[in-house]
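User: I need a structural model of Protein quiver from Caerostris extrusa for a docking pre-check later this week. Nothing fancy, just the predicted structure tokens so I can convert them on my end. Input:
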Amino acid sequence: MKMGSMYFYVPLFTILGSLISQGNCIKCYFCSFSPYDRNNRTDKCTEENFQHHNVYSDECKLGCESVIQYDANDEMEQWKRNCLQEGHKLTNDCETEKTPVMRLVRCTCDRDLCNVSVKIQADILCMFPALITLIWRWYSKL
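Assistant: Understood. Predicted structure tokens for Protein quiver:
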């Protein structure tokens, strides 16, 4: 094996290995907040106040979710981050359910700690062009 080719494969396999999830379970954030809950007045869960180092995380079998419930006046009633619940579809996207009295936004995902935001993260998609560029530049120097 030529020494130059080894310098190509080591970083390539390191980068690819970092993208693979370990084990069968996905790690998710857990928190909830409701402005109407007298026992839970500290908001660590909504988008504006979420701080990952102040929130519990654990493993989930089906994936992660963030659920935001609004009343008929579009006022937020509850915000939850937890494991994807049985009977709900994993979409890696956000879906909205509406009734005359409420609106529910459910975002589901299947990567470790992916329920950090209600905006589905495309960091993996953004990383591939950079990865290809890096490999191409590095390979062309060999």
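Before docking, keep this in mind: The first strand starts at residue 26 and ends at 33.
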